[in-house]
Amino acid sequence: NKPLTAEYIPVSREGTVGESNRFITPPIKPGPPVLGSIRLDGECREEWTLSLDYEYYGGTPGNHQVNWFRVDTDETGESVKVPLYVNDPMSYTCSCTDVGHHIAVEFTPVRSDGKAGQTRSVVSGSPVLPGVPAVKSLALKAETQLMEEHMLTVEADYTGGKEGDSKIDWFRSTEDGEWVALQKDKPNSTTHRLTSEDCYYRIKVIYTPARDDGAYGEPMSRETDFVAPGPPKVLAVDLTTTGVTYRGIFLYAGGRPGVHHHKWIRVHPNGTEEDIFTESGEDSEYTPTSSDVGCKLRYAIQPIRDDGLAGEWNVSGMSATIRKHHDESIDNALRAASVELNANMQRLDMQRSGSPLGGSPILGSGLSGGSPIMFGGGPGGSSPTMMMAQQPQGGSPILVAPPSRSPFPEEPRDLAMVCCCFFLSIMRQCSF
Question: CA nearest 384: which of 419, 417, 421, 425?
Answer without folding.
Answer: 417
